[in-house]
Design a protein that fits this description.
The complex is a heterotrimer of chains A (769), B (136) and C (118).
Chain A (H helix, E strand, L loop, with lengths): L1 H22 L5 H21 L4 E8 L4 E7 L1 H24 L6 H20 L3 H19 L6 H32 L4 H4 L3 H5 L4 H15 L8 H4 L5 H10 L1 H16 L3 H22 L5 H22 L2 H32 L15 H15 L5 H14 L3 H26 L19 H19 L1 H17 L15 H19 L4 H8 L6 H23 L4 H22 L15 H19 L3 H21 L3 H22 L11 H27 L5 H14 L4 H9 L1 H23 L9
Helix pairs in contact in A: 1-2, 1-4, 2-3, 2-20, 3-4, 3-11, 3-15, 3-19, 3-20, 4-5, 5-6, 6-9, 9-12, 11-15, 12-14, 13-14, 13-18, 14-15, 14-18, 15-16, 15-17, 15-19, 15-20, 16-18, 16-19, 17-18, 17-19, 17-21, 18-21, 19-20, 24-28, 25-26, 26-27, 29-30, 30-31
Chain B lengths: L3 H24 L7 H19 L1 H8 L6 H18 L22 H27 L1
Helix pairs in contact in B: 1-2, 2-3, 2-5, 4-5
Chain C lengths: L1 H19 L4 H22 L24 H32 L16
The chains are: A mainly alpha (769), B mainly alpha (136), C mainly alpha (118).
Pfam families (chain A): MbhD, MbhE, Proton_antipo_M, Proton_antipo_N
GO cellular component, one term (chain A): plasma membrane
Subcellular location (chain A): Cell membrane; Membrane
């Protein structure tokens, strides 16, 4: 299985150097990649149908528990078939759709990357690798949505999709890590055994929250739904692939995958049912008012995703069977409708539902595909959609008695909306009289209309022979979600019962609505007045707020003035140190241990203080330099008094040399200019004095602590015995810690080289000969 | 600053100060002094000479560019650090000649290390000061 | 006497910080020098200070016979003094170069260099 994931990744990177070839002659190679992968997974169908799971194990980062564990079970298989199968159709379709596009190769590189990432998500048996692939789908979909990168709207919606799904990924990661830590394993197939332990853990509500946010953002559930309609700015093949069958279903996959691990609790059920239920009715209503074909499809997709979440929330066997069938149903008809929309857009250059009419006259096969898909979407008997809808009603009807009526009503209302949306997208553009403006339109290249036609026909075939797909694929999917055996036997005809009545009523109401309500620009505008309270608006405001806050922060903190940085760093250090000092209580001084004071020391300190005052206040640069050297000499005298002759000598010579250096360089510079106003000077003086006081207090506190002199004693006692030297300071420097001195000389050498090259360097263009 | 008095004085001061710096270097192991201080005093001697007679004439006395003293000094230190390896001892082990030499005292690898430091310090200080002085 | 040294180091730090907060590059450099002096005094004070007994073993003895000043802070400070000379000299030369380039001692002028100088 690893190779199926890697094929896309490798081919994707190969497209960088060989993109030119692919653009012209060899582009036919590309669609065969998903075809081969599809055949590979098709070949696995009987294996999985036998009830065995295929497992592949490869260590990657064993120390972190991150491994390439791949596992193919019923759920993974269904998704893998969808990804590669619909992928194959999309690849053929996109090859014609984007023919001659300047970034043709780039598009397929992204698409392959995305396909691999999706396969990685559904096949990973390790939640951390699952997460890595999950993020990879977000990133590759960012590039795909923003493929028309010269359009601002396209860039914006790509960015929005990325920020929403990326934010969700962040939550998801936290949730996954919690799960892994509580269970002690990151392997999904091992996690099933920890269901009770996880559910009874005090952090369980948090885990559910985090993982649900991850899944809801990806699967465009309310209130994160708005990125999906926005993402319709992508080229239509991308919408067909990402937003019908794959990327948005990743969230559903995640929820389904975690149902046997985290599910079967009130919290899990209520969360999914409420969010899914609200999303499905909300989006279904919205889809009725769209005039853009892709807008209709986007909202009906959101609604379908809501249904899936809702069904996972119900969580009964009926519901799970419904989920496994409806995933397939929806993928088939929605991909078809998207591709049909793409063809219409490609040929007529409009997607406005109010203008499109009568296209069946010029593109009959497309109309057949669209019609079949619309019928399946509407759940007309003998289509696969009919079975899917039946199962949904069965699930809602068989749930807890007191809830039945509400849940069923919700499902019926949503489905009425979906019927209308499906007809409007699949039938409306083709019916009626062909207007003048579309006379030129014609049937596109066959590689564009054959894939949707195949998918649409499959939607009917599966409906007529539900046993084939039911026994070999969706049955195992339902088993995997339920974490046990589900008794699933798909049938087209259940006899006359409540479900059939509901289906008929839905269909009738949907058709009635289709004729009664015509979406127009005015209605859409009226609806958009409510945008101010939508989550999309809130999200935009949040984005603006963050931008404003960060620009404020940058102006305040990162303003580019060195002294302002200094000021903030020092002030912060003062606060930290001051707080720590304050915690330590009052400062004590051990007067008995102090060395006695003599008058000449006073004299030196007085000179030093005078020199300091002069440095701080003087306007003359030379005076400041000389005063600095005075301070150096004063310290030198201090060292003499306190038994440090080596220090005194070094300080003396260094001070002399520094002064010489200063004078050599600085006598050319202009005099100090006083830039600062009085307030700033006082502020800085207070901060500086505060720092001096804090440092002094720290030293006083240290002085009170008893000193351990073990190391000094060792050096003192062994200086002569071990190193044959009597000046202990020098022995430390050249013997005990000789290596330090060695590197110190290296540092000095580097400084000298730096000075040398800095002087010899010609920076200004005028200096260059 | 080319005054006759200073020029005459530095002519005698330079050797005396150099001698003093060498004295500081050699006795550093027993009394205050050592490679750092010795090197700094020697640099000051040269700097004084360059003040009186101009940097070019000091460079003439030195013969080499002061920059070349740095690798020589680093090499001397490194050798004194690694020589014990030849005797099968860990690096930086102190090695000493048996008999003390008058005035200097015991001679050992630590002294050579200090000489390396001495040379590096002279090289660094003079490189910095002379490149600045010559550039103006 | 320790108290006096503590006062000295506090003042050195205060003056150093004050100068570091100025706009003039030379003052910034002087501030850094004062700070390094202050740090030296700090290390010196924290090791026990002793009068009139340098850490040098008498010519006749092989080990110390009486109290001696702590050699470790002295070795540390000696290193620090020499290193800070390296730092200061490099900074001075850097300052000279910057002055030659932007013709000003004002740090704020560094924020907007002329195009040809970049």
């Amino acid at each position: 299985m690893l190779f199926t994931v890697l094929t896309g990744l490798i081919t994707s990177s190969l497209l960088v150097p060989f993109g030119k070839l692919i653009k012209t002659k060899w582009s036919i190679v590309l669609p065969f990649i998903p075809v081969i992968l599809f055949l590979f997974y098709l070949w696995h169908v009987p294996v999985i149908a036998n009830g065995t799971n295929v497992i592949q194990h490869l260590t990657w980062v064993p120390s972190l528990g991150v491994n390439f564990d791949f596992r193919l079970d019923g759920l993974s298989l269904l998704f893998a078939l969808l990804i590669t199968g619909i992928g194959a159709g999309i690849f053929f379709y996109a090859r014609s759709y984007l023919k001659g596009h300047i970034y043709f190769d780039r598009f397929f590189a992204y698409l392959l990357l995305f396909m691999s990432a999706m396969l990685g998500v559904v096949l990973s048996d390790n939640i951390l690798t699952l997460f890595v692939f999950w993020e990879l789908t977000s990133i590759s979909s960012f590039f795909l949505i923003g493929f028309n990168n010269d359009s601002k709207a396209s860039r914006n919606s790509a960015l929005m999709a990325l920020s929403i799904t990326g934010m969700g990924g962040f939550f998801l990661l936290a949730g996954l890590i919690l799960v892994g830590n509580i269970a002690g394993t990151f392997v999904i197939s091992e996690l099933f055994a920890y269901h009770d332990q996880l559910v009874s853990h005090p952090l369980y509500p948090l885990i559910v929250g985090l993982i649900c946010i991850g899944a809801f953002t990806k699967s465009a559930q309310f209130p994160f739904h708005f990125w999906l309609p926005g993402a319709m700015k992508a080229p239509t093949p991308v919408s067909a692939y990402l937003h019908s069958a794959t990327m948005v279903k990743a969230g559903i996959y995640l929820l389904a995958r975690f149902t046997p691990i985290l599910g079967d609790t009130e919290l899990w059920k209520i969360t999914l049912m409420v969010v899914g239920g609200f999303t499905m009715i909300f989006a279904a209503v919205h889809s009725l008012f769209r005039t853009d074909l892709k807008g209709i499809l986007a909202y009906s997709t959101v609604s379908a995703l809501g249904i899936l979440t809702f069904l996972l929330g119900i969580g009964t066997t009926d519901a799970i069977i419904a989920v496994s069938v409806f995933i397939l149903v929806h993928a088939l008809y929605k991909a078809t409708l998207f591709m049909v929309t793409g063809i219409i857009d490609h040929e007529t250059h409009t997607r406005d539902i109010t203008k499109l009419k009568g296209l069946r006259k010029v593109m009959m096969p497309v109309f057949i595909a669209a019609l079949l898909a619309a019928l399946s979407s509407a759940g007309v008997p003998s289509t696969f959609g009919f079975i899917g809808k039946d199962l949904i009603y069965e699930a809602t009807l068989n749930f807890r008695e007191s809830w039945t009526i509400w849940l069923t009503a919700l499902a019926v209302l949503t489905n009425i909306g979906l019927v209308t949306a499906g007809f409007r997208a699949g039938i409306k553009p083709f019916s009626g009289k062909l207007p003048e403006m579309f006379q030129e339109a014609s049937l596109p290249n066959h590689s564009m209309w054959i894939p949707p036609l195949i998918l649409a026909v499959l939607g009917i075939l599966f409906g007529l022979f539900p046993g084939v797909v039911g026994n070999y694929v969706t049955h195992q999917t339902a088993d995997a979600i339920a974490g046990g055996e589900t008794d699933m036997h798909l049938q087209l005809w259940h006899g006359f019962n409540t479900v059939l009545t509901l289906s008929g009523a839905t269909l009738a109401a949907g058709i009635a609505l289709y004729f009664a309500n015509n979406p127009t620009e005015e209605k859409l505008l009226a609806l958009e007045r409510f945008n101010i309270i939508s989550s999309q608006h809130l999200f935009r405001q949040l984005g603006k707020g963050i931008r404003r806050a960060s620009s404020w922060y940058t102006n305040k903190i990162h303003n580019g003035y060195l002294r302002s940085y200094h000021f903030k760093i020092i002030l912060f250090a003062e606060l930290l140190l001051g707080y720590k000092l304050w915690l330590g209580g009052p400062i004590q001084i051990d007067y008995a241990n102090l060395t006695p004071l003599s008058w000449y020391e006073f004299g030196i300190v007085a000179i030093l203080m005078g020199a300091l005052y002069i440095i701080v206040t003087t306007k003359s640069r030379l005076t400041a330099v000389v005063s600095t050297s005075v301070i150096g000499y004063c310290l030198c005298l201090m060292f003499v008094f306190y038994s440090a002759p080596d220090l005194a000598m070094t300080q003396f010579t260094i001070d002399t040399l520094t002064t010489v250096l200063f004078v050599l360089v600085l006598y050319k510079l202009p005099p100090f200019i006083n830039f600062m106003n009085r307030g700033v000077v006082i502020r800085d003086a207070v901060v500086a004095l505060g720092f001096g006081i804090i440092i002094s207090m720290i030293v006083l506190r240290v002085l009170y602590e008893p000193v351990t002199t073990d190391i000094s004693d060792f050096y003192g006692e062994n200086a002569y015995i071990l190193a044959k030297g009597k000046n202990v300071v020098n022995v430390i420097l050249v013997d005990f810690r000789g290596l330090d001195t060695m590197f110190e000389t290296v540092v000095l050498a580097v400084a000298a080289l730096g000075v040398y090259s800095l002087i010899k360097l010609r920076l200004k263009s005028s200096e260059k000969e | 600053m080319k005054s006759i008095i200073l020029q005459t004085a530095t002519r005698y001061l330079l050797p005396i100060l150099l001698l003093f710096s060498f004295f500081l270097l050699l006795r550093g192991h027993y009394y205050p002094g050592g490679g750092f201080v010795g090197g700094l005093v020697a640099s000051i001697a040269f700097v004084l000479h360059s003040f009186a007679n101009g940097t070019e004439s000091t460079m003439k006395i030195l013969g080499y560019k002061p920059l070349s003293l740095i690798p020589i000094g680093l090499a001397t230190s490194t050798v004194s650090v690694t020589v014990p390896l030849l005797f099968g001892l860990p690096p930086m082990t102190g090695l000493w000649f048996e008999e003390p030499i008058p005035v200097i005292g015991m001679i050992g690898s630590a002294l050579f290390f200090d000489i390396g430091v001495y040379l590096v310090v002279i090289g660094v200080v003079l490189t910095i000061l002379f490149t600045i002085a010559l550039n103006d | 006497m320790e108290l006096l040294l503590v006062l000295v180091l506090g003042l050195l730090y205060a003056a150093g910080i004050y100068l570091v907060l100025r706009r003039s590059m030379v003052r910034l450099l002087l501030g850094i020098m004062l700070l390094s002096n202050g740090a030296n005094v700090l290390i010196f004070v924290i090791g026990n200070i002793t009068k009139g007994s340098p850490p040098v073993i008498g010519s006749m003895e092989k080990v110390f016979q009486e109290v001696y000043a702590d050699p470790i802070p002295q070795a540390l400070i000696l290193t620090a003094i020499v290193i800070s000379f390296g730092l200061t000299s490099f900074a001075i030369v850097l300052l000279k170069r910057v002055y030659a380039l932007v013709d000003s001692d004002d740090l704020d002028d560094l924020n907007t260099p002329e195009e040809e100088d970049i």
